Amino acid sequence: MTETTQNQISAENPQAIENWVRLNNEVIRLGLEWFHLVLEEYIQNRRSEIPPSNGSSENPVITDLAADWLLRSLRREEKLPTPEKIKTARNNFDNARKNMEQTGEPSTLDRLSKAFGLSPFDEDVMVMGLAPFAQAGFSALLGYAHDRSNLSQGTPHLALALFTNGNEESEALARERFSPNSPLRRYALIETDPESTGMLAPFRLGERIGRLFFGEEYCDSAVEPLLGPVPAGHCPTRHQDPVNKLAQTLEKRGLNAALILGPKRCGKYMAAARLAGTFGMNLVEMKPNKLSPNFATRRAQFNVLSREAILGNAAVVINLSAQGKFDSDEKKQTALSAAEDALRYLESLVIVISDEHPELPDWLPLLNLHALTALDRMDIWSRELAEGITITHDEIEALSEHFALGPGEIASLCKTMQTDDPSEYWSSGRKIASRGLDDLAEKIESGFTWEDLQLPEDLMHDLKAIAAQVRHRSDVYNRGGFGRKLIRGRGVSVLFAGSSGVGKTMAAEVIANELDLGLYKIDLSSVISKYIGETEKNLKRVFDAAEAGGAVLFFDEADALFGKRSEVKDSHDRYANIEVSYLLQRMESYKGLSILATNMKSHIDVAFLRRLRFVIDIPFPSVSLRTAIWQRAFPEETKTENLDFSALGRLELAGGNIVVIAVNAAFLAAAEGAPVNMSHIARSAQSEMRKLDKEPRIPWI
After folding, report:
1. Where residue 4 falls among pLDDT bands split at 50, 70, 90?
2. Which of 99, 37, 107 has the alpha carbon at shortest distance from 72?
3. How would residue 36 be classed by pLDDT, with cut points 50, 70 and 90?
4. Burial (Cβ within 10 Å: 0-12, 13-18, ≥19) of residue 176
5. CB 260 within 8 A of CB 319
6. Mean pLDDT score of the chain, rounded to an integer?
7. Burial tier of 574 (Cβ tally within 10 Å: 0-12, 13-18, 19+)
8. Residue 455: left (phi > 0), alpha (psi -120 to 50), or beta?
9. Whether pLDDT at 145 is above 50
10. What is the DSSP string of 268-282?
11. Dihedral angle at the C-alpha atoms of 625, 626, 631, 635, nearest 10 degrees?
């Protein structure tokens, strides 16, 4: 691979910039002075060959007198040019360029020549194109030289006449320099009219190149919508050696393209940036969906993209990752087609990144990246945190273990937050990592704590053990060494079984609050599809979205999917088993906590239950537990009067029903402007019992 470099003057040295501008402007002045003499000599020679005009020309440009005045005003002297003067002017022009080269900061013309491999003839053509851009008088003179009012710019015909010695060999070579594959046109250094072809087809410098001659840098508006910045961040340490080997492969094989594959948030952008950096290049992203569908227009876009990539010393990355990027097969195919065209036409280092292997040429060198581990993320956090931010090793470890953020997300978070409070990073990490999950599941906000949960002591012990397994995952798997023994099945998978209202959802809320993690509820009955394979796709979207955030996933109505299906009697049983197996496999591999809830544990096959880490049977609450639930049912702010909690405890209702009764009783009391009393509770309890098809017997009435 040929490394293209463009020396940039340090923006930290204004004096150096000012000096370069002065010298560069002098090169331009001397170049235009030489071109003026060459053009004037051509005009004078043409005059001697062509009879004087009688003023009846069909395409009058300017009069001879006006032409003479323009020639003198541009040259600022009366005498006609001589070969010696032209040679001296050319020497002055060349010497000024050489002097700038020797300073290490060459002129714009020499930078363009080196970057795009221009020949001396190409350089002269660039000067011809610059002339009417820099000085308006040249437009009229060029029209006069062509004897056509519509040819006020340079043409191949005039360039051949001015810059070649007239023999057939040099003219044939010069014609090649105007072909579509020549550097001048391939990189859009000169612009031509698509409708005009041949030796009299005019060319010009576009505004981008014209202004660049005078040191003005900006991205061409024609390609600016096609490009975007690449996420900043450090390349994970584990990726650096493979990236370096990939660079060696490209250099050895003389290739300028590569394919990097890897799962979401593994650092593909950072690996691409490091690959570009090994060749001294920056990295920009090309947006494939912004390219024109018209082939000719798209080809022209790639010409300009190639030019801008070389001018900016940039490699181009194209992201074909499917997740959240393409909402239809048509858009995915459009992006793939754009990547293929980029590999074919874009003359820069092209790096394609994707989470799946796209259908691209087999010759592309491939780098497969693995998902980042918590240790990888710890390294990135440590490198990205600003100097002076004092977050402990344990706090960084907790962030890395619970939130599978990518390098770019960690870098962005650290850049925007300048605080020593680890809870701020935890809160932001949880928010970033859970993006996308809100559209797939119901987020449950709750303030319940262990004190709100009234369950038998042994169950409370089991629930706290579940929370401990999530919190101390790093202690056991990393420092404790179990990670080497237990490669798979690290997910904390749980089943909560019990009748409605006994506290399955509340238990999940308490654990999520204890861990300070988001809780998302997924109704399995709405995930199941009658179409083969769709249920797995729905589950995959949920788990993929949740993976980075370590969220607590609460799958309600699990009995809609589970059943005694181990004996396959028909195709429905077979596919039901596949769906269950897929869910359990994802729960086992999920890095967070996933909970199944069911009212009918007996419908779940024992073979499936054995694959779960915890199975918690939440019983209908006893009288003592119901009494305790009633005692905590009313907030301290709610005024109550003469409540008999022993009597309330004798109501055979689950905790969820008790909460509903308490709320409804508070509304009844508020309507009367009175404290909540046993009468309000009795009326609410009767209503709730009728809803449950129970006989509304109230002991104290």
Report:
1. very low
2. 37
3. very high
4. exposed
5. no
6. 85
7. exposed
8. beta
9. yes
10. HHHHHHHHHHHTT-E
11. 110
Instruction: Tell me the C-alpha distance between 56 and 53, whole Å.
Output: 7
pLDDT at 70 over 60: no
| Contact partners, residue 353, CB within 8 Å, separation at least 6 | 259, 260, 261, 262, 268, 269, 271, 272, 317, 318, 319, 320, 321
221 CA to centre of own chain: 22
Q: Are 320 and 361 in contact (CB under 8 A)?
A: no
What distance in Å separates the CA atoms of residue 646 and residue 417, rounded to the nearest whole number? 53
What pLDDT does 17 receive? Answer: 87
Is the separation of the CB atoms in 240 and 336 below 8 Å?
no
d(Cα 490, Cα 293) in Å, to the nearest integer? 47
Please tell me the distance from the alpha carbon of residue 615 to that of residue 596, in angstroms, as a whole number. 9
Cα gap 407→413, rounded to integer Å = 10
pLDDT of residue 564: 46
Q: How many residues does the chain have?
A: 701
- The stretch 554-567 carries a mean pLDDT of 68
pTM of the model: 0.79
Residue recorded with tokens 């040679």: 87
Predicted confidence at residue 327, as pLDDT, reads 57
Predicted pLDDT at 385: 87
Q: With cut-offs at 50, 70 and 90, classify the pLDDT of residue 54.
A: low
User: How many other C-beta atoms can be found within 10 angstroms of the C-beta atom of residue 601?
Assistant: 17
Beta strand 442-444 pairing with 519-523:
antiparallel
469: exposed, middle or buried (Cβ count in 10 Å: 0-12, 13-18, 19+): middle
By CB atoms closer than 10 A (0-12, 13-18, 19+), residue 270 is: buried
**Please, which pLDDT band fits residue 625 given cuts at 50, 70 and 90?**
very high
Q: Which two tokens stand for residue 646?
A: 């022993």
Query: For residue 322, what is the DSSP state?
Result: -
Q: Name which of 582, 600, 598, 580 is nearest 590 in CA terms.
A: 582
